[in-house]
Design goal:
Elements: H1 3-13, E1 25-27, H2 36-40, E2 47-56, H3 59-68, E3 80-90, E4 96-106, E5 112-119, H4 140-147, E6 151-155, H5 172-189, E7 196-206, H6 208-221, E8 229-236, H7 242-252, H8 257-275, H9 293-299, H10 306-312, H11 317-320, H12 323-330, H13 334-343, E9 358-360, H14 370-381, E10 388-390, H15 400-418
Parallel strand pairs: 5-6, 5-7, 7-8, 9-10
Antiparallel strand pairs: 1-2, 2-3, 3-4, 4-6
Helix pairs in contact: 1-8, 1-15, 3-4, 5-6
Length: 419
Amino acid sequence: MSRRLRAPLAAACCALLLSGPAAAAAVAAPPPAHTQAQRQVQGRGTLVSAEKLYTLTTQEAVVAELAGAGFAGDTVRHGVVAYRLVYRTVDVHGRPTTASGLFALPLTGERRLRAVSFAHGTGSNKNDSPSMRRADFVSAPVIAHAAAGAAAVAPDYLGMGKGPGLHPWMDIGSETTASLDMLRAARAFAPRTGHALERDVMVTGFSQGASAALGLGRALEAGDDRWFRLGALAPVSGAYDFGGTELPALLRGDVDAKSGAVYAAYTLVAFNRLHHIYDSPREVFAEGEGEDAAEIEALFDGVHTGQQLMARIPASVDELLTDRGREVLAHPTGAMAKALGKTDAVCTDWVPEAPVRLYMAAGDEQAVTANTDFCRAALHRNGVDAPVVDLGAVDHQDSRHLGSNVAATSAIVRWFGTR
């Protein structure tokens, strides 16, 4: 498979092509923090365990790690120590479960730190998660924020990292609860490192994580936590109007063909698990010679790698979908329409009081920039000025989408530093 073919999927699915466990050293977890806020959420955010993953002792070591992932080191001011936290949260039905995430801290500087929450882009394998990767594409932004002096927090999401079960992709509700509870777990663990987290949280996220970031920002401003509050919001290259803009674009062929096929498959499989869109995969996935529609579903089990998805998912939406599958995405009704209504409300159903900037790269071949236009217009109708920052020609591994995350990281670190 050519590099040109592999790179778009990396853009669409962030870390799908990455593999290999991160080295970890056990750290004794502190007792659960039985604060009033923790009791209020009945155990949500309670720390279950913590592992020290790695330490980058000098600025030079951090710069080298970031450079290895293709990220700039121009905002690095500190060495960094990184932990994996496992914490209690709730699943899509509100039932108790656990999730994991990455918590990175500067080795020097202030004891009281402002938190930065970073929500990562799409992955299918459980290892495509910040706490499972050492300074790779999915975790480099977290390291960059910590190296600039923040307490950087990154949820793996439900079903990813060390979390049980399957990942409910593009489910804003569970992305929000996992993100908020990761912040709570980080606050509980921080004193063990000699730090305390300030109330204001700077929130950012890339691709799938851009919508997750908006969901977290909305929850913080709604007072869903008694301690944390939103300081600023900086999503990057999101599919904010997933049903109304992104899905039509991939059906028209406006999105890179292979990545569009992956998005379409993931949408149908993930949404069907939660909302029962179809009875059999043969209804929505076409079968050719030697092809089995059920195999498409099986690919999204958290175990298959990005390479396996690339090899087995058809090269285009037209080859992937039956007429019924295309109709479900083109003209959603019933449970699908209701689910997409929630996904597409991240910019429309609240009025941020904290400052907002929307980052994008013109020519993005994955998250079409009409999504950003939609979000800015929706916020403007609600009286919110959300400037759009066009990052320009920022290709990374032949992908403008991937490049937007790289370029935005330094820009957002600097902007957060002025707030």
